[in-house]
């Protein structure tokens, strides 16, 4: 196999066993630059990624390489921009002179050479989130307008932008769309999208391996647009708040755009330092609301349309009435409907959707969380202990993620409760796992097949 093909296979597997944030941050800009004489050399974009792969992910890389038939005596990580200086475009050279050398040293990014592997991601961005596929309506129009304005002139208006609102109403989608739009207009812009969880993790790691702290700081402070999602997770983390404060100031003073999302307004985030609280409100603070009925209908039609499915109006209205507060759940309901109809080879109609969803909230009551975990384990031919335990093998990680998804979709448990049922302390893992499964359900994947079968049996 060619190096690039092999590495894509390896990345594909790694993607299944780490969180999306981790994958995007640490793996997306890597490539296999050498595979010879028992040595595998992995090209990485910067020292920060190099350290992290060496310290945290080397075992995983070795394991997945082995699964793909490679047992090198040694795996090395080399900083490799993939662009020779002479092949830089004029634009890039100009960019370098205007923005200084610091970023070049800290976080030079390979572009053209491995675009085949990374086309859908740029520093945490997922190309799936765009303004084009975001449905605007009462509830989100203000946030949408602000995000568009920012995308057209980052750093000039509404800085920082602070968007808050409930779960699953499109915050991540919108703030990611800003990043994608800025990149589309200016491919060399330095956009960083990070979950607060990721920011925290990197900071903790940087502290632990002392000498990394300046890389960490430099990396974030070199952004043109810094997007930090779910900033409420800074609560109670003093040291990290301090670090974020400095990052914030550096970017703000340099007229760089800062965008944050949260599930509550700054004043309600507990133990948030006063100086951060006030800074968060310097620019624009937007309360994003659940989309209204009409908007929910439009969202359903758009999503169905993207799968080339024409939903009857009464079906759309039924779903939009049933699921009111969370667009992610709304999508989930639609996917369930699509899967149900696919399996039976029928077209969605109001009778089907009524039988499927009528009373579903009451339906699973007789099923316990434990029973769902047991069924999931059984379905995948592993043990409950595997699911609850710490193992990171793919054949265990995926069922574990499916179990979390099932607890959410069938019992509507909260994320912390799901984490608890799985014996985990950190509920953000549950969020990531569930989102990952949801993403995979939206296209034809083996996961979709598995989840459908599981659900069928659950209620058989
Ligand atoms: P949040 O970050 O607020 O929890 P997300 O941005 O993750 O929510 O949105 C949840 C899902 O709903 C995503 O798949 C997103 O694409 C979709 N979604 C939310 N609002 C809209 C909208 N107005 N138009 C299209 N899709 C939407
Ligand atoms: Mg979000």
Q: Report the uncertain regions.
A: 83-121, 361-365
- Relative helix content: 55-70%
Structural class category: alpha/beta
Report the total helices. Answer: 22
- Please describe the biggest sheet, giving its number of strands, its sense, and whether it closes into a barrel: 5 strands, parallel
Tell me the β content.
Answer: 5-15%
CA radius of gyration is 23 Å
Description:
- With 460 residues, the chain is an alpha/beta fold.
- Helices cover 55% and strands 10% of the residues.
- The protein has 22 helices and 10 strands.
- The strands form 3 sheets. A 5-stranded parallel β-sheet has the order 7-8-9-6-10, with helices on both faces.
- Helix 11 (238-253) links the parallel strand 8 (225-229) and strand 9 (257-262).
- The longest helix has 21 residues, at 47-67.
- The two termini are 45 Å apart.
- The model is unreliable at 83-121 and 361-365 (pLDDT under 50).
- Bound molecules: adenosine-5'-diphosphate and magnesium ion (MG).
Topology:
Blueprint lengths: L2 H15 L2 H8 L3 E6 L2 E6 L2 H21 L6 E6 L10 H10 L2 H6 L7 H4 L2 E2 L2 E2 L14 H12 L8 E4 L6 H15 L5 E5 H13 L4 H9 L3 E5 L8 H16 L3 E6 L11 H7 L3 E4 L5 H14 L6 H10 L4 H18 L5 H8 L11 H11 L4 H5 L5 H18 L3 H7 L5 H15 L4 H13 L2
Parallel strand pairs: 2-3, 6-9, 6-10, 7-8, 8-9
Antiparallel strand pairs: 1-2, 4-5
Helix pairs in contact: 7-8, 9-10, 13-14, 13-15, 14-16, 17-19, 19-21, 20-21
The structure holds adenosine-5'-diphosphate (ADP) and magnesium ion.
The site of magnesium ion (MG) has 3 residues, from α8.
């Amino acid at each position: 196999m060619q190096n690039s093909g092999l590495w894509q296979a390896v990345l594909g597997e790694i993607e299944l066993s780490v969180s999306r944030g981790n994958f995007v941050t640490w793996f997306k800009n890597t490539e296999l630059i050498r595979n010879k004489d028992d040595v595998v050399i992995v090209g990485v974009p910067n020292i920060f990624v190099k350290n992290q792969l060496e310290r945290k992910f080397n075992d995983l890389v070795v394991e997945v390489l082995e699964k793909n038939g490679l047992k090198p005596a040694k795996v090395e990580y080399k900083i490799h921009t993939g662009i020779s200086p002479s092949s830089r475009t004029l634009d890039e050279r100009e960019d370098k002179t205007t923005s200084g050398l610091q970023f070049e040293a800290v976080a030079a990014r390979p572009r053209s050479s491995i675009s085949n592997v990374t086309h859908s991601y740029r520093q945490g961005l997922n190309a799936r989130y765009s303004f084009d596929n975001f449905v605007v309506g009462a509830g989100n129009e203000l946030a949408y307008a602000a995000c568009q304005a920012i995308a057209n002139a980052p750093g000039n208006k509404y800085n920082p932008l602070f968007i808050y609102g409930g779960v699953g109403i499109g915050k991540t989608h919108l703030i990611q769309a800003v990043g994608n739009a800025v990149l589309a207009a200016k491919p060399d812009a330095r956009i960083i999208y990070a979950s607060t969880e990721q920011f925290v993790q990197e900071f903790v790691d940087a502290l632990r391996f002392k000498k990394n702290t300046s890389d960490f700081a430099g990396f974030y402070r070199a952004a043109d647009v810094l997007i930090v999602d779910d900033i409420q997770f800074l609560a109670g983390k003093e040291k990290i708040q301090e670090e974020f404060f400095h990052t914030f100031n550096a970017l703000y003073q340099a007229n760089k755009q800062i965008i944050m999302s949260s599930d509550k307004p700054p004043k309600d985030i507990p133990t948030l330092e006063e100086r951060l609280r006030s800074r968060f409100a310097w620019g624009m603070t937007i309360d994003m609301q659940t989309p209204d009925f009409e908007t929910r209908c439009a969202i359903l039609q758009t999503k169905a349309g993207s799968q080339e499915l024409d939903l009857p109006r009464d079906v759309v209205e039924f779903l939009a009435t049933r699921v009111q507060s969370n667009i992610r759940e709304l999508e989930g309901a639609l996917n369930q409907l699509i899967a149900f109809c696919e399996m039976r080879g029928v077209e969605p109609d109001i009778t089907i959707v009524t039988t499927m969803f009528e009373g579903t909230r009451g339906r699973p009551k007789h099923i316990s969380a434990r029973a769902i975990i047991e069924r999931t384990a059984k379905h995948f031919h592993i043990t409950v202990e595997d699911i609850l335990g710490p193992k990171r093998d793919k054949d265990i990680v995926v069922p574990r993620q499916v179990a979390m998804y099932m607890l959410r979709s069938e019992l509507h448990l909260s994320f912390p409760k799901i984490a608890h049922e799985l014996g985990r302390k950190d509920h953000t893992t549950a969020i990531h796992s569930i989102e990952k499964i949801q993403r995979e359900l939206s296209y034809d994947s083996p996961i979709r097949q598995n989840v459908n079968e599981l659900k069928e049996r659950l209620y058989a």
